[in-house]
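Hypothesis: this fold can be encoded by more than one sequence.
Test: take the structure tokens below, design a sequence, compare later.
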């Protein structure tokens, strides 16, 4: 799976999982609230029903002694009888304490129901108090069921959406594969005519040409070098995953000087001055990959520079820095400049692959890329070498 496809898949699945989780949480919250109300209503109803049963027993009893003998007990409830002065006449839970409120109320993890009873033959009993546990046990079971439901639902739906996403991305994958094949074929077809043009320009006897003709040849040479750089990028991108590193100990300053001279005609065409401060040192790296880094930094510095601008190249033991005085990059775009095929300036052309190639190589060699830019002032690209590569 390609990196853009992987990113798109991860974003889509993540968004779906987040939205689906929010939806399930809302549904679960509504269900939990509903279940809580149902449990609470059932508990209140059972307390009222039991209180009615107690009143029937009290009505049938001739005295308190007979009432105690035939009193119906329910293990879910504790009962207490009070007189007019709220003095305890009988209690199935000795030493129980509670605030006196008629009706339903909750106190110290228990529900209470207090009602008044008026009987002539048992005038001592005036209040009936029924106590029971809260519905926390039922709510805990409900919460556990909801947790399990959420976990399995999210996992199941994530797997389903992942499978569907891969299925839906299949046409896109085919389209990208066809595009890559088209680029591969186009690159291959460009190689021969480009080589012929470049070789023909090099073999020309420029001293025998008239100034007007020489100027045309220089323009052709600049165009050929521009196309050659694009060709090299495309060829490198196509073969990158299938090539092995050929690391050798390179003199970085010598290679940088060679690439500066190669791009000097392009800079001269825009009357751009190149300033180089190169400190000699060696680095173990694949020559072609380092060439791609230098070429793309120089190419961008020329392409996005202003006429009569400047390019400052500084090579040290720790880094390679290329600064231009060009159009600059907006701060919100800097994070996206290494994305393949991403372009922010349509006027200057290109495929949007140069910086992506630089990023791939830097990741491979554990180099650090740092970018600073200001609109209309210019951009600085700095590559910090991995010390272990020295």
């Amino acid at each position: 799976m390609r990196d853009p496809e992987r990113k798109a898949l991860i974003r889509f699945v993540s968004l779906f999982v987040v939205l689906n989780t929010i939806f399930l949480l809302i549904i679960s919250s509504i269900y939990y609230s509903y279940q809580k109300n149902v449990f609470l209503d059932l508990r209140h109803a059972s307390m009222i029903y039991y209180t009615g049963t107690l009143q029937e027993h009290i009505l049938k009893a001739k005295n308190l002694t007979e009432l105690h003998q035939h009193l119906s007990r329910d293990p879910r409830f504790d009962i207490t009888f009070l007189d007019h002065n709220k003095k305890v006449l009988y209690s199935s839970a000795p030493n129980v304490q509670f605030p006196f409120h008629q009706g339903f109320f909750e106190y110290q993890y228990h529900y209470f129901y207090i009602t008044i009873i008026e009987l002539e033959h048992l005038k001592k009993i005036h209040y009936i108090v029924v106590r029971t546990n809260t519905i926390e046990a039922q709510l805990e079971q409900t919460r556990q069921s909801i947790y399990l439901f959420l976990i399995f639902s999210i996992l199941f739906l994530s797997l389903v959406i992942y499978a569907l996403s891969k299925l839906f991305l299949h046409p896109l994958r085919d389209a990208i594969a066809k595009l890559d094949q088209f680029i591969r074929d186009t690159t291959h077809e460009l190689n021969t005519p480009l080589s012929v043009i470049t070789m023909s320009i090099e073999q020309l006897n420029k001293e025998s040409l008239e100034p007007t003709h020489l100027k045309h040849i220089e323009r052709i040479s600049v165009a050929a070098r521009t196309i050659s750089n694009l060709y090299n990028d495309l060829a490198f991108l196509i073969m990158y995953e299938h090539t092995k590193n050929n690391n050798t100990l390179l003199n970085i300053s010598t290679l940088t000087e060679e690439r500066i001279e190669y791009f000097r005609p392009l800079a001269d065409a825009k009357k751009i001055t190149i300033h180089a401060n190169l400190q000699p040192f060696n680095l173990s790296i694949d020559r072609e990959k380092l060439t791609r880094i230098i070429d793309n930094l120089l190419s961008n510095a020329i392409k996005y520079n202003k006429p009569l601008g400047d390019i400052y190249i500084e090579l040290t033991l720790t880094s390679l820095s290329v600064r231009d005085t060009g159009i600059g990059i907006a701060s919100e775009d800097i994070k996206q400049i290494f994305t393949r095929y991403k372009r922010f300036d349509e006027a200057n052309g290109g495929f949007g692959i140069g910086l992506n190639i630089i990023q791939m190589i830097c990741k491979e060699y554990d180099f650090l890329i740092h970018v600073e830019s200001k609109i209309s002032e210019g951009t600085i690209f700095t590559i910090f070498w991995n010390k272990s590569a020295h």
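DSSP finds seven helices and twelve strands in the chain. The chain has two domains: 3-139, 246-389.
Hypothesis status: open.
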